[in-house]
Specification:
It is built from 17 helices and 21 strands. By secondary structure, the chain is an alpha+beta fold. It has 3 domains: about 140 residues, Schlafen, AAA domain (Methyltransferase, Cobalt-precorrin-4 Transmethylase, Domain 2); about 160 residues, Heat Shock Protein 90, CATH 3.30.565; about 100 residues, Arc Repressor Mutant, subunit A (Orthogonal Bundle), CATH 1.10.10.10. The strands form 6 sheets. A 7-stranded mixed beta sheet has the order 12-11-15-16-19-18-17. A 4-stranded mixed beta sheet has the order 1-2-4-3. The chain has a 3-stranded antiparallel beta sheet with strand order 5-6-7. β5 and β6 form a beta hairpin. The longest helix is centred in the C-terminal third of the chain and has 39 residues. About 35% of the residues are buried.
Length: about 500
C-alpha cells in the first residue's frame, strides 16, 4: 500500500474502519478480535505501533519481521481464524520508527474463533452472542456478496485442473514461502474460501467464486450464461470495431487474454522506475484489468466492456455499489465487491493491496498520457475512463495493421496454395462441389486464425471474424471435410486444430 495513504490514516481518529494498537515487542492480545470484527463488518485498517491518539510509539525493530510472519501464519490457521483469511501486513518507517499496517478487507464469509463471532461498531469490537444478531450478519453477507453463493452440485471434476500448476507457479513467483504451496488442490480451494458451509441452512459446497476462478468454460456458462468480457478497438470503424476479443473463460485466463489484447492494441511508453526500465502500459492496465475482474458483480447480466477509442479507454462492468459518483483517488475507502476473488488475485501477484489500483493508475497516467485525468465512477455500473495520447494510439494502430498485413502476406504465401490444393482435391472427389471463391477466402482466413490460435472454440472464432456462429460452422465443416481442420476434445470443451496433413503442407 502506498506510504502516503498510511500517513493519511495516521492523521485520522479511530473509527469503525480504523484501529490503532500498541505493539512494542509482540502482537497485541486483542488484535484478532479487531481482525474478526472487520472481516465480518466492512473491513478496515489496523496500524500496529500507534496509540489510541495516533501517536507513533513504534514496533521493536528486531520484532517487526517476526510479528509479520506470525500474523500471516495465524490468519491461515483454522484454529485461530475460521474460516482462514490470509492477510499480508506491510512494514513502514515513519518518523524514524517502524509501524505495521494491516489491511483487512470485508469478507463474504462470517469468521469466528473457538465458536465466538465478533462484529464492529464505532465503539470498537464486540462479541455477538444472540442468535438474531448472528443471523443478521449471515444475512448481510448472503445478500451483499453474490460470489459466496453455494452450488452444492458443483464438483471438483467441474474445474479446469490444468490451471493448478499455473496457479502454483504464480503464487510461488509472488511469494516462494506462501503457505498454500504446501497444500493439495482441494485444501487450497478451502483455504482460499472457495468452499464453504452455511451454518444456517446446512448447505455446503463450492461457491460462485470457485466456479469463476477455476471452472471449465461450459460450467461457467451454465452457472452465469451472460458472462463475457467484450474487448473492442473503435478507432477507424467507430460504429462497429477494428478489432475484437470475446472472452468467456475462467478469470485467471481471462486476465491473461485481456492483457494480451491491451499489448497488441495500445502503445507503450519509455518509463524508468528507479534504474530499471518498465512497461508503463502494463503497469497501468494490469490495474485496470484486475479491477474489472475482481470487482465485477457476476450475477448481473449487464455486459462487461473494454473499449479503446482514439483518445481514451473506457471500461464498464456491473457493480454492487458502495457509494455513488466519481471516486477521489486521494480520499476514498477501498471496499471489495468480491473479497474471495480479490484475495485470490492478491496471492497471484496480480493485485496489490485493496485500493492500490486506483492510486497507481492515477499516479502513472500523468506519465502515459499528455492530457486529462482518470475518472473512476461508482454506480450500478462501475466505469473507468483512461485518457490516452491520440497520435500514439493512431501510430500504434497503423503499425499493428501494417505488421499484421505483412504477417498475413507471408503466411498466405504457403497457406493460400495449401488450402486451395486441399479444397480442389475435395471438389474432384465430390466432397465439396460448388465451393466458390468467397468461401475459399473465408476458409483461408479461418486456417490462418486457427494456425495462431490452436484450440480456438467456434464462438470465439465467430467473434474474431465478426460473423454468426452458424456461418462459421459452415466454413468449418468444409475445412474439416477436406482435411484442413479437425476438432479435438468433447463437444462442449474441445476446440479447432490444424490437421497433421495441413501442418505438413505449410512447414
Amino acid at each position: 500500500m502506498n506510504i502516503e495513504r498510511v500517513k493519511r490514516l495516521l492523521k485520522k481518529k479511530e473509527n469503525i474502519r480504523l484501529e490503532f494498537k500498541k505493539a512494542a515487542i509482540a502482537l497485541p492480545y486483542n488484535l484478532f478480535e479487531s481482525i474478526y470484527a472487520m472481516l465480518n463488518r466492512d473491513g478496515g485498517d489496523i496500524i500496529l505501533g500507534v496509540n489510541n491518539n495516533g501517536d507513533i510509539l513504534g514496533v521493536g525493530e528486531s520484532q517487526v519481521t517476526t510479528m509479520i510472519t506470525n500474523l500471516v501464519n495465524l490468519t491461515n490457521n483454522q484454529q485461530k481464524l475460521d474460516p482462514p483469511f490470509i492477510l499480508f501486513p506491510q512494514k513502514y518507517e515513519v518518523k524514524g520508527k517502524w509501524i505495521i499496517h494491516i489491511q483487512v478487507p470485508a469478507s463474504s464469509q462470517v469468521h469466528k474463533s473457538a465458536g465466538v463471532i465478533f462484529d464492529r461498531s464505532n465503539d470498537g469490537d464486540f462479541r455477538v452472542t444472540h442468535a438474531h444478531q448472528i443471523a443478521e450478519i449471515h444475512n448481510r453477507k448472503r445478500n451483499h456478496y453474490s460470489e459466496g453463493i453455494i452450488y452444492p452440485a458443483l464438483r471438483f471434476e467441474d474445474f479446469k485442473t490444468e490451471l493448478f500448476p499455473k496457479i502454483r507457479n504464480l503464487i510461488s513467483s509472488n511469494n516462494s514461502n506462501h503457505p498454500w504451496l504446501a497444500l493439495n488442490e482441494k485444501q487450497m480451494l478451502e483455504k482460499a474460501g472457495l468452499w464453504k458451509r452455511d451454518f444456517q441452512t446446512g448447505q455446503e459446497g463450492y461457491t460462485l467464486a470457485a466456479a469463476l476462478l477455476f471452472g471449465k468454460d461450459e460450467v461457467i456458462q451454465h452457472i452465469v450464461p451472460h458472462y463475457k468480457i467484450d474487448a473492442l478497438v473503435r478507432i477507424q470503424d467507430t460504429s462497429r470495431y477494428d478489432d475484437r476479443e470475446y472472452i468467456q473463460t475462467n478469470l485467471v485466463e481471462a486476465y491473461e487474454q485481456l492483457m494480451a489484447f491491451v499489448s497488441r492494441s495500445l502503445p507503450d511508453k519509455f518509463y524508468m522506475e528507479g534504474d530499471q526500465r518498465v512497461s508503463l502500459r502494463t503497469k497501468i492496465f494490469r490495474e485496470v484489468v484486475a479491477n474489472m475482474i475482481v470487482h465485477r458483480e457476476y450475477t448481473n447480466a449487464h455486459p462487461c466492456s473494454f473499449i479503446i477509442y482514439t483518445d481514451r479507454v473506457e471500461t464498464e462492468n456491473a457493480n454492487n455499489p458502495h457509494g455513488h459518483g466519481p471516486i477521489d483517488p486521494d480520499n476514498f475507502a477501498p471496499f471489495p465487491k468480491n473479497p474471495a476473488i480479490a484475495k485470490f488475485f492478491i496471492q497471484l501477484g496480480r493485485v496489490d493491496e485493496l485500493g492500490s489500483g486506483i492510486m497507481n493508475v492515477n499516479r502513472l497516467i500523468k506519465e502515459y498520457s499528455d492530457k486529462g485525468t482518470v475518472q473512476f465512477i461508482e454506480g450500478v455500473t462501475f466505469k473507468t475512463i483512461i485518457p490516452i495520447t491520440a497520435t500514439a494510439t493512431e501510430g500504434a494502430t497503423e503499425g499493428a495493421t501494417k505488421s499484421n498485413d505483412t504477417k498475413l502476406d507471408a503466411v498466405n504465401d504457403t497457406v493460400n496454395d495449401s488450402v486451395n490444393s486441399l479444397i480442389d482435391d475435395g471438389v474432384n472427389d465430390g466432397v465439396n462441389d460448388g465451393v466458390n471463391d468467397g468461401v475459399r477466402k473465408e476458409v483461408i482466413r479461418l486456417t490462418i486464425l486457427i494456425l495462431t490460435n490452436e484450440g480456438a472454440k467456434t464462438l470465439n472464432i465467430a467473434a474474431k471474424r465478426g460473423k454468426s456462429k452458424p456461418t462459421i460452422e459452415r466454413y468449418l465443416r468444409i475445412a474439416t471435410k477436406v482435411g484442413i481442420i479437425e476438432f479435438k476434445g468433447a463437444p462442449k470443451t474441445g476446440g479447432c486444430f490444424l490437421t497433421p496433413k495441413m501442418k505438413e503442407k505449410i512447414k
